[in-house]
Amino acid sequence: MKKALKIKKIIIKTKKKEESLGWNKVVSFLKESGVKCVKNSKLAEAAIIIGGDGSILHWQSRVDCPLLGIKERKEGVGYYTKASLGDFQKKIVKILEGRENKDYYIHKLSMVEARLNGKALHPALNEYLISSGYARKMFNCIIKIGKKNFFERNSGIIAYTPTGSNAFAGSAHAERMEWNSEKIGLAALAPYSGKLKKGGMFFDSEKILIKCLDDKGEICIDGQKSRLYSLRRGDVVTIQKSKEKAKIIGFSPSFV
């Protein structure tokens, strides 16, 4: 006798414009399992993101429910994806029929949020990169933390999360954090001078103000082209730890 499903409505997302072989396999399996595939994320009890980490970063703040990432290509990056096309069936069954905190886990991951001149931007699961827009061009800014001001010259400022410390920030030699840390980090990309040339900084609930001193700059959220914002001289970016959490499904008590 088949077990009753604990999750009956799932939304499926991918960054690709066309449905892929992986997409069709997942949809067919869900239908065979008695799951209804919905298009409205507000009706979904869980989300399945097909692709790699880029797809997770694109969709995670666009859906309200816990999500499972299914890595579609072997050569893709899959830090946040906890299933593949080779094992997704048995892992989906664990979610549909199993018990939370035993058969599967919903990890609540820290995010960082920002405002540009007071206007809220999308929260970041990995990082915000505040820069001139070109790695070859120096970015000049003032960082204000409490009552202290620091004049910084570098190729960019990276405000990153604990899991983001393993991504772009980690590639820039930012100090790694435990995945479940409650802090956010600040590091400089190719620092030339300033406080961050001596090393990164970590924050709990403090607000960090970054004032652009160049005629042009940009903010990039989680490396997504669809989330680029222009900066002008005098613009102020305010950064702090977000109260929101990303809900990523995994199959171990530890996310890593």
Can you offer a commentary on this structure?
The chain is mainly beta and 256 residues long. It has 2 domains: 9-103, Probable inorganic polyphosphate/atp-NAD kinase, domain 1 (Rossmann fold); 111-244, Sandwich (Tumour Suppressor Smad4). The chain contains 4 helices and 17 strands. A 6-stranded antiparallel β-sheet has the order 7-6-17-14-9-10, with no helix packed on it. A 6-stranded antiparallel β-sheet has the order 13-12-11-8-15-16, with no helix packed on it. The model has no long low-confidence stretch (mean pLDDT 93).
In a few lines, what is going on in this structure?
With 256 residues, this protein is mainly beta. It has 4 helices and 17 strands.
Write the layout of secondary structure elements.
Blueprint: E1 9-14, H1 21-32, E2 36-37, E3 46-51, H2 53-59, E4 67-71, E5 83-84, H3 88-97, E6 105-116, E7 119-120, E8 127-131, E9 139-145, E10 148-154, E11 156-160, H4 168-171, E12 184-189, E13 201-203, E14 208-212, E15 216-221, E16 228-232, E17 236-250
